[in-house]
Amino acid sequence: MATTLRDYIRQVNYTLDRNLTRGVKWLVLINIAVFLVEALLFVPLAIDDVFVRIFAQNPIIRYEELPAGAVGMTINWLSVTQFFTYMFVHASPWHLFMNMLALWFFGPPMEARWGSPAFLKFYLFTGFMAGALHGMLAPFFIGHNYVMMGASGAIFGVLLAFGIYYPHERVLLWFVLPIPARLFVILIGVFTFLSLCGGHEVGISHVTHLAGLAFGYAWIRLREVFPMFWLFNGDPRPFARQFRRSGGFRSRFG
Hints:
The protein is mostly helical. It has 9 helices and 4 strands.
């Protein structure tokens, strides 16, 4: 019997459900879908810059240096929604792959521990706050029009959470050297801070990465103080319904 498209989709979904928790699965699929829409629809039509202007983060429409050292900036008020949408837009296949690989590795243990609603709220909260902080600060440090995109703010929050809850779990540094997760997160934080201070790797938003770590830590500590507040527990609001945990996934970190 010939395999239909529906059968193929079901098989792919079954495979994902056995290896990923539900929230992580949908985050990965949404990020891939957004990238494919841009690559297959907007890029061939040569209007991918429109896609980036709408969904990636670009808080400044125009920046100009005025006489006597003054600076003029025109604020893009659409950037308020871009603090959320930017984390689903990626600049290249490699950019998308590295972020989704990190989410694939570190997201399922945290979702299995917290439940899907709490994990998704954590992911979206850290990504939104990291993007908002970058959007508010970067214009005063970068000094020209810029665009920021990618899920790394939220991913760094997930890394921080993994390091706190599974500090002794082995992680491969550079995919070669096994080190404890806690040490891995510390090294990532130190390297990011030094890169920010040194001005290295201009195309990378170290502010967003550090903010992801900071807001991830704040979310975890506030969750300990206010466990009944809907933002920090399994209450599905504002997601409308309770997300089911994947029946096939079994965490190694339970």
